[in-house]
Every structure is written in structure tokens, then in C-alpha cells.
Amino acid sequence: MPLSRLMCSLNPFEPSASTRFPHRCTPQPSTAKLECPSSPNAKFRTPRELFPYPKISEPRKRIRRGKKSTILTSTSNKEELENEESKKKEAQRKKEFEQRKNELRGKRYQ
Q: Where is the composition biased (Basic and acidic residues) (predicted)?
């Protein structure tokens, strides 16, 4: 099927139909009147000054006391472990309660 001669122009460098019309420009404000600070106090900042590398604190060492494996059939050991576990849970509950309490105080005064 041959190409239609109406589809393509004879001159391949001829502008397309959309660029044949004059372009209407909207006037833009001039930047010629703006002055750049040229005083010695004016300092140009580098991107590194604006966004410095994050400072990384030294990693903290985790120090945990090692526990020995125990057999839980002995009531004295079992009770001791249960007491430790209940103390941990109670401390966690208190911590969560304080956090919720502080959150509510913050919401109340906002």
C-alpha cells in the first residue's frame, strides 16, 4: 500500500502544522534589576554545609549477666525465676502506663 502524498510533506525539514503559527509569549518579570549580595559578609554555602553528614554515636556495648540453665522442677529455683519474670512484667506495665499518661497530658494541653 503506497503512502499518501497528502500525509507527508515534500520537504522533510518543513515545520509541523503546530509550529507554523507564531508563539505567543507571556511577559516574565525581569531579573536584571535584582542584585546579588557581593559584600564580604555574604557567604555562599556548599551543600555539605547545608546538609552535613549525620553524626553517628559510638555503638553501645550490651552487657548482660549470663544465666545458667536450671531445671524448673525445684520449687525454690522455680519461684525465684517466676518472681524475676513478674518483676519484669510489672516494670513493663509501669513504663507503658507512664507513656500513656504522658501522651494523654500532651493531648489535653494541645
A: 77-110
DSSP conformation class of 4: P
| pLDDT confidence of residue 81 | 83
Q: Would you state the pLDDT for residue 89?
A: 94
Instruction: Give the whole-angstrom CA distance, residue 9 versus residue 15.
Output: 10
36 part of a folded domain:
no
Q: How far apart are CA 75 and CA 72, in angstroms?
A: 7
Domain-embedded: residue 30: no
Closest CA to 17 of 30, 4, 8: 8
Distances (CA, A) of 47 to 40, 51, 52, 98: 20, 6, 8, 42
Give domain status of residue 5, yes or no: no
Is there a domain that residue 97 lies in? yes
Tens digits of residue pLDDT in 58-86 = 887 878 777 777 666 667 778 888 898 99
